[in-house]
Specification:
The complex is a heterodimer of chains A (196) and B (777). Chain A is built from eleven helices and no strands. By secondary structure, chain A is mainly alpha-helical. In chain A, helix 3 packs across helix 6, helix 6 runs parallel beside helix 9 and helix 9 runs antiparallel to helix 10. The radius of gyration of chain A is 19 Å and the shape is globular. Chain B has 777 residues and is mainly beta. Chain B has six helices and 49 strands. In chain B, strand 28 and strand 29 form a beta hairpin. In chain B, helix 4 crosses helix 5. Chain B starts with a helix and ends with a strand. Classes of the chains: A mainly alpha (196), B mainly beta (777).
């Protein structure tokens, strides 16, 4: 049966408006050509850092440090697929600690809104690049505790998330992260300032 | 027959579906659906991916598409239950120009045959020629007629005296390459002729002997006819005679214009097989094999003496024999292929084509237990279909279409099938039948178009025609007679039958065997002067050395090479006038996706492949151990692991990257000891502190100042080898950043623990992982 033409017109109009809105929102994010190109081609390396040359990585993380709230707002347009979402999450590990916690919180919001894929959201709660061990070492901070508890709530049937968050909250994960950092001769992560 | 249990289960499943009112019952799966949605998946599995099933015209949910006992992945003719030769790989072809740059000229540029020794027999308006990969073009002083698989050829009537049509003749068996390198006009051995005109059985006036073909043991097949009449119409001057006729197929073909010659026989008296020992008692005569006034014209003799040919019954229509360039017996009421099994019996095979249609058998192969005979039958419009007939001594003869399309329907060919080899590849005038499908030979590169296959030997080498349209100034555009050389470069370690699917890794000093295509491993090679082999080596910085010859002995369609140095090598064949062809991957490498789900395109099928050579057994052991964990999630970032080998058992490294733990474990498991290092746990800032044993980090492996017994550090400038550890450090994060480590596989890919699995997603040439340092066990 044919749909009433008015419905079809409304649907097309809605789609058009949505497209216009996305374009408008993207305009709100300053996205230079080099960043657009980078997002099209780069990926997270096998050890948790954004790929590319040193210059490309620096440009990307500098851009993200400035624009991360807008990127989060329009994550479905900036990073519509798993590869790019993982890239955004990995790049966000260059943010200062407090901002990083806010980013992760916003990332989980977007997951709840259906804009971020589940596998990416779960992986973001186990940072592997610059922020490796960050949650484990800040397990006593209320903002981190809130994040971990929220992750447990959001992914109730994921055993790995449950275990990791539980061990993070208990401090046990700090031992594992400490050992891993020591293996790699890496310095311990930034410790968040006490909450006000 | 299909296995009984499969049939029963299949029937039960069909009944179950029939009982469902909710869905339509598919009579067969549409291969194109799953081929497009899941091209790389093998549903049954039967050894063919969905894409391959679509190309083969087989069913993706049925491992036995033709209901025989051979699964589709092994069945070369998976839509024909009567026929199951081994499935052949899909190959590309390199073009060798037999015209040496100039397009074919003259009125009779016929290709007359191809031997298994790769000798091509052909003619032009002046003479016959042979072309051999070793010797090139050699002109002949007789008109050749056909060539055997072993490279011998016969001349139909080399002694004919055209000034005396009543004088009868003999035929010759010639062996071109029986001695030293040939010289023009005198390369062969004359075997003499069957003395049919001798005392025992003299040829009578008006009789003529004629050689048709020869098999690999030198048995010549011919016939002689009587009551010949010849009519000469404006017989041309002798000096130009060769300009006006040629030898085509099995008969004389007198043409054309004002110098029309017409010729006929009223009977073929005998079929003759003549062994090469020149003893008259060896001559076998099948008297009047056509019987009842019909004549039999033989076409080909197999190595076991089986003969196929054409039987005709209406002589009166033969007075224009030779006028039709397509086939000789245009108006014969019915013809048939004949198998002659002894001197006294002849078996007629039931062939397609009823009364008023004409069948001819043109070629047969030597396959056992089933033999293939190809031929054609024609309708009243002189167009027809080519068919394949099969028979064996243990089964009834059967008739099969020469190929089927993707819907399983018989392919209707325009007219003619030319040749069949023991691999059941068939050349036709509309394409090559390969694995039971009519295809156009795929030519590497784009300079040659419209390949037309005429003869094919048991190595799958084809001779035919192709049009040159490239820009090489040494090759003139136009149609050339060409050899199509199959290219699917294979390698193996001496003693192996094939390289493992996981890639070829040998230890220094072991002998490597390489062939242009797998079948060349087991055939004689005379391409030494036409094919040379080069290699280049992967460097530690991801670039390559220059291409250089592998060795003076690395020539021909196959070669052996004793490996003298470790490394990771690409190889290529350089074919004179036939292009360059790299050793390529046969399949997509498994587990080549990174943690972001991105597949490394360098590891795709048809991308250049490598051969790995390791200096020592420790490298092989470490690589093999690492490879055995490919795809494992035991070293995933989220996994908890008990490492062992002295590592603190209270550490499970949950949430940590485990690339270094993977390498540590693989090395120790392979017998190459890597000691732990100590970490003082100050975690809570409260003594007593605990010293915990942990594996060396990737950063430790990267650094030349960190000593790991049994592993020698090597800088990025080294030439890496399989079994090396490869380590990349995040350059601008030397303190806060990390490093990644893996074990090099045969091909320069890292076998490393990523976020989710042990994978092969990184290649040494990938810029994201350069610079790379190495360690050698």
């Amino acid at each position: 049966m044919m749909k009433p033409s008015i419905n079809k017109s409304v649907s097309m109009f809605a789609a058009l408006m949505l497209t216009c809105q996305l374009v408008e929102n993207l305009k709100a994010i300053e996205m230079p050509a080099n960043i657009q190109t980078y997002l099209q081609t780069a990926a997270v390396t096998e050890f948790g850092f954004p790929s590319g040359t040193e210059q490309q990585r620096t440009e990307f993380t500098t851009w993200l440090t400035t624009n991360w709230p807008a990127v989060l707002d329009e994550i479905e347009a900036v990073a519509p697929d798993e590869r790019r979402q993982k890239l955004i999450a990995a790049g966000a590990e260059s943010l200062p600690g407090t901002n990083y916690v806010s980013f992760l919180s916003g990332f989980l919001d977007k997951y709840e809104a259906g804009k971020v894929k589940k596998a990416v959201a779960i992986e973001a709660m186990s940072p592997g690049g610059k922020k490796y061990g960050f949650l484990a070492f800040n397990y006593q901070h209320p903002s981190v505790q809130a994040l971990c508890n929220r992750a447990k709530t959001l992914f109730p049937s994921d055993a790995e998330v449950q275990t990791l968050m539980t061990e993070t909250l208990s401090g046990e994960q700090g031992k594992q992260a400490g050992a891993a950092l020591a293996m790699e001769n890496r310095s311990e992560p930034e410790i968040l300032p006490p909450s006000q | 027959m299909r296995p009984f249990v499969t049939c029963v289960l299949g029937s039960a499943f069909a009944l179950l579906l029939c009982g469902s009112p909710l869905r339509a019952i598919p009579t067969k799966a549409d291969p194109t659906d799953v081929a497009s949605s899941r091209p790389d998946q093998d549903e049954e599995p039967d050894g063919l991916t969905n894409q391959e099933e679509a190309e083969a015209g087989t069913f993706p949910y049925n491992a036995y598409s033709d209901s025989d006992i051979d699964p589709d992945g092994l069945d070369g003719w998976a839509r024909e239950p009567a026929l199951s030769p081994p499935r052949l790989p899909n190959v590309q072809y390199a073009v060798i120009d037999l015209e040496q740059g100039e397009p074919q000229t003259g009125n009779y540029p016929y290709i007359l045959g191809l031997g298994d020794d790769n000798t091509v027999l052909f003619s032009d308006e002046h003479f016959g020629h042979t072309w051999n990969p070793k010797y090139g073009i050699i002109p002949l002083s007789f008109w050749p007629n056909s060539i055997s698989r072993s490279g011998q050829y016969v001349c139909g009537d080399g002694d004919r005296d055209f000034n005396d049509p009543q004088r009868n003749t003999s035929f010759y068996l010639m062996d071109v390459w029986s001695g030293a390198a040939p010289t023009a006009f005198a390369p062969w051995t004359k075997y003499g002729f069957p003395s049919l005109g001798g005392d025992a059985d003299p040829l009578q006036d008006g009789e003529e002997a004629y050689a048709v073909t020869v098999n690999s043991s030198g048995t010549t097949l011919g016939y002689f006819a009587d009551q010949r009449t010849q009519k000469y119409i404006q017989r041309p001057p002798r000096t130009n005679f060769f300009s006006w006729y040629g030898v085509a197929g099995t008969g004389l073909n007198f043409t054309t214009g004002q110098y029309l010659n017409a010729m006929s026989w009223t009977a073929v008296k005998s079929i003759i097989t003549y062994p090469a020992d020149e003893t008259l008692p060896g001559v076998i005569r099948y008297e009047n094999p056509g019987e009842n006034g019909r004549i039999f014209i033989p076409h080909q003799i197999a190595d076991d003496g089986t003969i196929v040919g054409q039987v005709g019954g209406d002589f009166t229509a033969l007075d224009t024999l030779g006028h039709n360039p397509t086939h000789s017996f245009l108006d014969v009421a019915k013809t048939a292929a004949v198998q002659l099994v002894s001197s006294s019996t002849a078996q007629e095979l039931p062939l397609p084509g009823g009364t008023g249609e004409e069948s001819e058998a043109t070629a047969l192969n030597s396959s056992s237990p089933k033999r293939g005979i190809i031929g054609s039958y024609y309708n009243d419009n002189n167009s027809g279909e080519a068919n394949l007939w099969l028979f064996s001594e243990v089964e009834s003869p059967c008739s099969c279409p020469i190929a089927r399309d993707s819907d399983g329907e018989p392919v209707t060919l325009e007219r003619h099938a030319y040749d069949i080899n023991d691999r059941f590849q068939i050349t036709t005038d509309v394409g090559l039948v390969h694995n039971g499908r009519l295809t156009t030979p795929k030519i590497a590169g784009s300079d040659w178009k419209n390949p037309w296959a005429q003869y094919i030997n048991n190595s799958g080498i084809i001779v035919g025609y192709a049009d040159y349209s490239g820009t090489d100034p040494n090759i003139t555009a136009g149609s050339h007679r060409v050899m199509l050389l199959p290219v699917q470069i294979g390698s193996r370690k001496q003693g192996m039958t094939t390289a493992p699917e996981t890639g070829l890794l040998v230890k220094k000093g072991e002998v490597l065997e390489v062939a242009l295509a797998p079948q060349f491993f087991d055939t004689e090679d005379n391409f030494e002067t036409l094919i040379t082999w080069q290699q280049r080596q992967l460097k530690g910085d991801g670039t390559y050395t220059e291409w250089s010859n592998i060795s003076a002995q690395a020539t021909g369609a196959k070669f052996e090479h004793t490996t003298a140095a470790g490394g990771i090598f690409q190889i290529k064949a350089i074919i004179t006038n036939g292009g360059e062809h790299k050793y390529m991957r046969k399949i997509d490498a498994p587990h080549a996706k990174n943690g972001s789900g991105v597949y490394n395109e360098k590891l795709r099928k048809d991308q250049p492949d490598f051969i790995g050579v390791a200096d020592n057994a420790a490298q092989v052991a470490v690589r093999d151990q690492s490879l055995s964990l490919l795809g494992s999630t035991a070293y995933a970032k989220s996994a908890a692991i008990t490492v062992g080998y002295g590592v603190d058992p209270t550490l499970d490294f949950k949430g940590a990257w485990k690339c270094n733990i993977f390498v540590f474990s693989m090395s120790n498991a392979a017998g190459v000891s890597v000691p732990t290092k100590s970490w003082r746990d100050y975690r809570f800032g409260i003594p007593p502190y605990v010293d915990r044993a942990v594996p060396p980090g990737a950063n430790d492996w990267y650094s030349s100042s960190y000593s790991i017994p049994s592993w020698t550090w090597a800088a990025a400038s080294t030439l890496p080898q399989p079994g090396f550890a490869a380590i990349h450090q995040h350059v601008n994060d030397a303190v806060a950043g990390g490093a990644h480590i893996g074990i090099l596989d045969y091909d320069g890919t890292w076998i490393s623990a990523g976020s989710a699995t042990v994978n092969k997603s990184i290649h040494v040439s990938d810029g994201d992982y350069q610079p790379t340092n190495y360690r050698k066990p």
